Records
---
Amino acid sequence: MSSIKIQKICCIGAGYVGGPTMSVIADKCPDLEVRVVDINNERIAAWNNSDLNKLPIFEPGLDRIISRTRGRNLFFSTEMEKSISDADMIFISVNTPTKTKGLGAGQASDLSWVEASARQVAEYAKGHTIVIEKSTLPVRTAQAIKEILKTTNRGNKKDEISKTFSVLSNPEFLAEGTAIHDLEKPDRVLIGGEDPEAVDALVKIYLNWVPSKQIICTNLWSSELSKLAANAFLAQRISSINSISAFCEATGADVQEVAKAIGTDKRIGNQFLSAGPGFGGSCFKKDILNLVYLSGYFGLPEVANYWNQVVVLNTWQQDRIYKIVLEKLFGTVNGKNIAILGFSFKANTNDTRESPAIRICSDLLEEGAILSIYDPKVSFKRIAEDFEKLSFNNQGIWKMANSIPDALKNVDAVLILTAWDEFFGLDWNYLASLMRSPTWVFDTRSVVDRKEIENTDINLWKLGEGN
Ligand code: UDX
Ligand code: ADP
């Protein structure tokens, strides 16, 4: 076992990964002091808000953990220098979006934030520090981090010469909406690294709550690639079932029945087979595009094309939905009122990154639709920012609704894009009375049961259900 004693941990980046991950580590390891730092003052202030409903991210169960750890052994601050210099172990958990310009634009990850973090670590760290990449990163990023730590250290003042670093990869597999459960009961913890003492020090932390047989140790590159591969496999499954959903609509089959029939084969398994409006979230698209870029870089164009098709199909699914809405509403939505139920990329999160709703709503707005958007957790500000990022020719008008009935008042159609619990089992008899006739409900998440609308004049279109 490791002789390195870890007492203080620092995490750079207080986002959807850093925040929940460090909260659970602090909860499970009360003897450790955990400091989460971020350059974003507003975000840190929100993490420190005494009103737990105002934390910067919504994650079921997170408030409960924060209430017992914050101020005890979990601290959120912008104090970069002290938090880094005090720490024995530093997690880098910053954003790694797809590059928007330069070499690899649209595919490769932008590592500016990782590089800036590594430079901060190189500058402020003292003694021996274990540096852990937590953000999903392209294969061989650990090498880049190592080089930054080495070169920035070179030629420093005399008292800093003794700085040393071990770099590990410890990708996070949590899914948003179930982050706390995934962190408390992970399927596995993956640790990649070459320094056995550093690996052992990290294993020891996880052993506080994760059985040893679930902790997998590999070399650095396998660990980095496993994260990209896991996300690519998961996303591929969604594109596969979505391709079948279109097939079902064309032939009269029902994608729910097909998913059940194929999912009972143990080799296929029954999870991740829900057809929908396409995958969103910060990881899937970014990681596949990364894989595509790296495959091209390593001279593997067939591999690149294979994975790229998963993203192509995902975009096609989103386009397909918007076109179906248009077609059913007599080829035009100009001036028509449409309610959007759900804007987050999945239920139980306020995250909208890569949400299918952004593209589908933008397309409808561009056609002149008037949207009333209801989402239980996503704010007006977030949606406005999402629309702003797309430079589309916005001729439509949108507003936020406070409730489902508020969203549905006088609309010609309802489009359900996220499977929030509260969208199931609605009183469609009442809701239909609020809407204009003829009324359409477009259900992309299999939320509405046909029986619920049988006594109404609602026309129901369900994704993946053939006639
Ligand atoms: C994903 C991975 O699951 C997680 O391991 C990794 O760490 C980060 O990326 P996340 O994006 O948070 O997690 O959520 P996930 O539950 O995987 O859903 C991703 C997208 O796929 C969502 O838009 C979701 O609606 C969609 N999805 C998921 C489907 O359309 N059908 C499914 O059956 C499952
Ligand atoms: P993820 O989903 O991977 O957690 P987020 O975008 O939610 O990504 O969070 C990343 C966080 O990292 C943001 O709050 C951002 O402000 C922070 N960050 C980025 N660069 C730095 C940096 N150099 N130092 C500290 N925090 C940083």
---
Amino acid sequence: MILIDGKKEAAKLREELKQEVLGLKNNFKKVPGLTVILIGEMAPSQIYVRNKEKSAREVGLKSEVIKYPESIEEKIVLEKIKELNKDDTVSGILVQLPLPKHIDKQKVIETISPHKDVDGLHPMNVGNLSSGYQGSIPCTPLGCYLLIKNVEPNLSGKKAVMIGRSNLNGKAMAQLLLQEDCTVTITHSKTKNLKAECLAADIIVAAVGITELVKGDWVKKDAIVIDVGINKTEKGIVGDVAFDEVSKVAKALTPVPGGVGPMTIACLLKNTIECFKRTQK
Ligand code: GUN
């Protein structure tokens, strides 16, 4: 079984990005900038944002975090985004999700310039991805895609099953694999006989947030299994895949932690650099 080392792959990608930033600095006399907006005090979001900021600095990007209290008015956040849209030193804008209930997520996402939307969540980028046009691709699916391609460069004709249909994961992942000529099934909480769907899959991407949902007898021999889950349990952080059981049957599997997570952040940096390059052309 191939244990997919997301930490190692992410480090490799960050090193490539670092070299690319040096080149851009030489060419344009400036570096790409990432601005993250963090609202509230949720512990997981704070940890994610700290890691994003640290990684951005490490590859040489300009990095800024704007923090607002949970009670901040929506209007102030939208005004700040509009200001960042006009700021030439800001290449990428990310508003950390989830947002407090009184703030309209759709309004926030649609206010971010699609050219600075490093999450790939703006409807224009969602449309670009589903049309196969250029644009930002959500970081986690992009990271999963790179890990899968590393194990199996030719995905043509493979049957891929997404578990979960979120905008950030399942739906975008499905589009990426469709572009690789996979036959894609998107499953969700109302899917009948999820086990049978998984057993038919050459590739499984689990992103539902249910601890160890995917069991050993759900997985075909030689399938590639990507675990996006981050579930807090008494045993610590555990994925959506029963690791010990599945590792006995799968061809390749990502661990949690150390699989998809580090790639998500590296892909955020990649997206920031891509946004910068597209505006310099
Ligand atoms: N919260 C958890 N994952 C993400 C992500 O990829 N982007 C944003 N904006 N918020 C998140």
